[in-house]
Write the structure tokens for this entry.
Amino acid sequence: MILTLEETKSFLKVDYDDEDEYIEELINASEQYLKNATGKEYDSTSFLAKLYCKILISDWYDNREYMEENKISKRVRFTMQSILQQLKYCDGD
């Protein structure tokens, strides 16, 4: 497992338990997404993988509905694509 529920909630700035199940689903989905995209499995020792999953989860959490893309989301998507390329083609952190 790359991320814990506690560290993910801290990153999202969520201090209540009402959405724990949803956040756990996002954690699992982000880890599966990363594995499918790179063909590699990561654990909690890969800081780049942790960052990628946190950003992906944050984007999914904050944008539950389809929204028009804005400049911030374009920057986030560029950052995520850059991190994903490094994870896919580079060994180690």
